[in-house]
Amino acid sequence: xxxxxxxxxxxxxxxxxxxxxxxxxxxxxxxxxxxxxxxxxxxxxxxxxxxxxxxxxxxxxxxxxxxxxxxxxxxxxxxxxxxxxxxxxxxxxxxxxxxxxxxxxxxxxxxxxxxxxxxxxxxxxxxxxxxxxxxxxxxxxxxxxxxxxxxxxxxxxxxxxxxxxxxxxxxxxxxxxxxxxxxxxxxxxxxxxxxxxxxxxxxxxxxxxxxxxxxxxxxxxxxxxxxxxxxxxxxxxxxxxxxxxxxxxxxxxxxxxxxxxxxxxxxxxxxxxxxxxxxxxxxxxxxxxxxxxxxxxxxxxxxxxxxxxxxxxxxxxxxxxxxxxxxxxxxxxxxxxxxxxxxxxxxxxxxxxxxxxxxxxxxxxxxxxxxxxxxxxxxxxxxxxxxxxxxxxxxxxxxxxxxxxxxxxxxx
Length: 412
Known about the structure:
The structure is a single chain. The protein contains no helices and 30 strands. It is mostly beta strands. Strands 25, 26, 28, 29 and 30 form a five-stranded antiparallel beta sheet that branches. β12 (about 180-185) and β13 form a beta hairpin.
C-alpha cells in the first residue's frame, strides 16, 4: 500500500497474441475500504485467484492502530465483492517480538494439491527495515496457520541489491516448481525484481542471476525503480506486469507519485524481455477520474474465458480493467521516445531535448489530468510557461508511432 501515481486507462500489448486495449469497468471502484478499526486508513495490494466459479481476493488493510493485516473478499464476476465478516481480517500480526508483529502487506496466494498458500510481507517496526516474506497455509482459505516462526525468504546481505528489505511476492506453481518473483530494495532505496524457486513452496533458493528486471537509464520511465510484479503463465510463456518510477517522479516531494506500469515476457521465468512500448499504463492516459487518484499500483492479473482481468490499487480502493487477446505484429524498429527536460524546476520556460529527430507533439497536463498546453517541434523544443500558475505539471511527447514516458516539471 505504498501509494503512487494517478491514471486510469490501460493499453498493454504483447507479442503474438496481445491484449492491446484495456477497458475499465464502468462499476469502478469495485472495492473500497470499510471505515472500521481494521481498514479505516487504507486498503491495497489485491491478490485474486479463480477457485471454481468464485473469484477470491486477499488484500492488505491498514488500521487506525498503524498496523497492517490481511483481509478477504469474494466475487462471482470480479465487480461485486463481498467482504468476509464485515471486513474483519482473516490473518493478523504476530505477538509482540515476532518478526511480523507490526505490519503485514503485499499478500499473494495460490491453491495447490495441499491447500492454500499465502505469501506476505511482514516486519516488526514501522520503517519496514529488515522486512521479509513469510508463509501461511490454509485448508479453506479463511483460517490460516503460519509455517514456522521465521520468514521463508530473507533480504540479502547489506550490500546486495535486495539487502535492505524484500516485499511484493508473486508466486506461481507450474506443476513442477514454485516460482516467487519479488521486489528487492537496496541500501540506497533503489528497487528491482528478483526470482527464487522452490520444490515445495517452503524452502526457497534465490536465482544467481538476480535481479531479473532492473532499472534502465536515468532518463527512462523506470530509471529509478521497478517493483510489485504480478506474473501469470499462459501458453508456455510467462507474462509480467510491474510498476516503474523515474527520477523525474521524485522532483517535487521526493515521492513516487507518478508511477507507471510496464510489461515483460519470458520463456523460462528468469530471462525477461521488456515490452518495447513500455510503459503500458501512464499518468496522462485517459479517461481520468478523481476516484482513481494515485493509481494504478500493485496490479494483479488473471486470465479466464479468453479475457484478461486486471485489478489495481488506488488511493480510494480497487479498480478493474479487462482485455481480450488480439493478434499483433511487433514493429521491426524501436519505438520508445526518450526526452530530457531542463531547467527543472524553472520559472519562465522549459526546453525539451528529444531523442529522435522527428516532428514531435508535446502536451502539458495539470495534476487533474487536463491538457493545458500543446505544441510541436523537433530536436530541442522550447516551451513558454511563464503564464502558468506555480505548481507541478506533467508532460508527454509523441512522434509517428513513437511514444514517451510521462515526466514531471515544477513551475516556480
